[in-house]
Amino acid sequence: MLNQHVRRLLTAGLTDAPLRADEYAVYSLLFELGPLTATEVGRRLGMPLTTVLDYVRQMDARGHLRRERHPRDGRARQVELTIAGVSAHRETHAHWEVVRRRLEEALPMAAEDVRRALQALDQAAIATLAQLDAEAAAG
């Protein structure tokens, strides 16, 4: 239920932004940590590689992406935002900040406590997924 409520909130808050909330997440990762390979993007966002490649294609079609050879692996390509991609990210970020501030103001507890709890939940989900994957691989 929480996922649905947050999704609706972000959809409403980013209605007039150039990027959807899911796209903003990918752009934000590249803005903060890029350049990255598609595999690295998927790993950091918990997305399958095929999903990341769909985002990469969309970003490329918009002129928001630059590809370059990986410095240590000549077969791999890294992606990073172009100036147009950074501009789309920044414009969306302005909308995101309005939603974030309003959401934090509505919290019944300190935002930092919520962040710590969500990080703990994320870490527990990652660990549990790793266990399930290991069990499935073992047969």
Describe this structure in words.
With 139 residues, the protein is mainly alpha-helical. It is built from 6 helices and 3 strands; from the N terminus they run ααβααββαα. It has helices at 2-13, 21-33, 38-45, 49-61, 83-106, 111-138, and strands at 36-37, 65-69, 77-81. Strands 1-3-2 form a 3-stranded antiparallel β-sheet. The longest helix has 28 residues, at 111-138. It is flat, with a radius of gyration of 17 Å. It starts with a helix and ends with a helix.
What does the secondary structure layout of this molecule look like, with pairings?
Blueprint: H1 2-13, H2 21-33, E1 36-37, H3 38-45, H4 49-61, E2 65-69, E3 77-81, H5 83-106, H6 111-138
Antiparallel strand pairs: 1-3, 2-3
Q: What is the helix fraction of residues, given as a range? A: over 70%
Largest sheet: 3 strands, antiparallel
Molecular shape:
flat
Distance between the termini: 33 Å
E-strand count: 3
Taken in chain order, the helices and strands follow as: HHEHHEEHH
Structural class: mainly alpha
Note poorly predicted spans.
Answer: none
Helical element count?
Answer: 6
- Work out the radius of gyration: 17 Å
Average the pLDDT over all residues and give the rounded result: 96
